[in-house]
Specification:
Blueprint: H1 4-26, H2 33-44, H3 50-55, E1 57-61, H4 81-87, H5 100-109, H6 117-121, H7 129-139, E2 143-149, H8 182-191, E3 195-201, H9 208-211, H10 216-233, E4 237-241, H11 248-251, H12 253-262, E5 271-272, E6 288-291, E7 303-308, H13 327-339, E8 342-348, H14 358-374, E9 388-390, H15 409-414, E10 424-431, E11 434-439, E12 446-449, E13 460-462, E14 471-474, E15 477-481, E16 496-500
Helix pairs in contact: 2-12, 4-5, 7-8, 7-14, 13-14
Protein name: Alpha-L-fucosidase
Length: 504
Amino acid sequence: MRLLKPLVWVLFLIGSMNGLAQKKTDKLLPYSKKTSEKLWKKIDSRPVPAWYQKAKFGIFIHWGPYSVPSWSPVGTYTEWYQKWLVSKSIFGNNNPDSKAIPNFQDNVYGTESSYYDFGRMFKAELYDPTSWAKLFKKAGAKYVILTSKHHDGFTLWPNKQAQDMRQVKWNAGETGAKKDLVAPYMEAMREAGLKAGLYYSLYEWYHPWYMESNPRFVTEHYHPQFKDLVNKYAPDMIFADGAWDHDDQFWRSGELLTWLYEESPCKDYVVINDRWFKGCRHKHGGYMTTEYEVKGLEIDKPWEENRGMGFSFGYNRAENIENYTSPKALVLMLCDLVSMGGNLLLNVGPKADGTIPVIMQERLLQIGQWLDLNGEAIYDTHKWKRSFQWSKGNKVFDNKNVSYVGGDYILKQTINPPKGMATKEVLFTAKGDDVYAIVPKWPGNNLHIKDLKVSKDTKITLLGYNGPLSFKKTKGGIVVDFPNYDPNGKLVDYAYVLKITKVK
């Protein structure tokens, strides 16, 4: 019964609306491949605002009706709950059972229940975006991105397009919380001095128009809904997603982004990503994105890795302590990405009531503690001539057997390598002619840094330790003398940072 009802009304609407849809789309202006390419050439020529490349660290927030069940097998995305439920399929790590979500739904919510029930159960009764902003500020983040609408189509703001072709109320203004959840978020982030961004899914799994690839989904749903979001909140960033099924002749995103850059209220400052049509990623847009990956992007464009602290973006009650990335790994991950010229967008998944799980709060504060002391090696830095210093051994990290690479990958690359594999002994960032050498583990009495030429004016300090360190030149490098380690000192042992000034 749960699956039959949506299917019946979808088929009915598809059949009854086809003729009208054709009349509507006949009036559209032509949007050829040539037109798309011309628009994207101009879009791609726009430089990404400098603040983004200086920021390095941001917070992602996945929050919506999927936060009510907040469950899926470990290694899968809980925010895909509706897809797993209706399709009776699933993908992710650990070979998950394809019927895990339907069985969970039946056992917990009953055989007559529906995913749409979670809209009215998503009440956000303890939502306090000001406390969120204070936490993110303490974590050292510079920007934040909230899911205004995920692939289930539920909007966190009052929006009439969210009701298109639906039998249920499907936005936070009309059900569940019964209030705008985006406006107070935008206000709180900006009052805290953080850039406030919004995630927006182009597609919706079970919208009737999308299911039949009807152009009305684009012209009467996606475009006007997107404009409504932008006109109301004028975000600093837009993280698009869910465009992989169709090329730009379907999405007409080049047309929409031309409006964004030329007419919208945030036209002079908005930052966009690279997920606007099939084949767009790593080629078109503002900054480029990776997701639960290991290797950085060797490109001239700014780029960003986005991932959760565990293996999901939405909060997953199935994840235990061993599934969460350690604070040391999160700090080293940030350093690793920045050394390659990237940013880290680290996700938190609030519960349905709006509270952020305590373990996520703790992880953010631990990152912030390290950044308080060592942030100058991260913020406003750029790639040096090389990102790492490798030890001897095999540099290849094999992640072929998993869909999403866990955060412990960086520990395997730095302090706990598999047998025969090399380690990243030092990670490098730079600012002007100063180089920061980030050391994953305490080296003992001294550290040999290869292929680094110092000048007569060079000074070396250990951030958090008073006074300069002595060093001597070697063939092609230097050996730095480390002080005796003081466990009661200011140092935070997730990673140690040498500041090396006046490098040639």
